[in-house]
Amino acid sequence: ESLSTLRYASRAKNIKNKPVVNEDPKDAKLREHQEEIARLKSLLSKMSSDACATNHVPGNTANGLTEETLTEGSRLKMSKEANILQAEAAAKMNQLRLDHQTTEE
Asked: What does the pLDDT read at residue 53?
């Protein structure tokens, strides 16, 4: 084998390909936002289930909270935060749908 063949083989060996999926940028953004909304919904449901479990079990010290320390005010605050998160997620999804519909037309 000649020296030039060995050099060619060495260069060919070092070639690295990075395949990329052809995807519309707006569809990719929509998919990312849907994944974020799903993540936030699961986080929200986990928070509410943790709060319910902590509220109903006497002496439960999960997250350092006892039934006595969860006042009505803190329950309302958690409920309001959950509602705000849901509203933000719904507004984001509606805006994305409108943007997507506008680009399709």
From this structure: 61
- Whole-structure pTM over 0.85, yes or no? no
Q: Are 85 and 39 in contact (CB under 8 A)?
A: no
Show the DSSP H helices in 16-71 as ranges. Answer: 25-56
How far apart, in whole angstroms, are the C-alpha atoms of residue 63 and residue 60? 9
- Distance from C-alpha of 98 to C-alpha of 93, rounded to nearest angstrom: 9
- Give the count of alpha carbons within 13 A of 102, CB side only: 7
Place of tokens 């509410």: 48
- Lookup: tokens for 100: 């997507």
User: What gap in Å lies between CA 97 and CA 101, rounded to an integer?
Assistant: 6
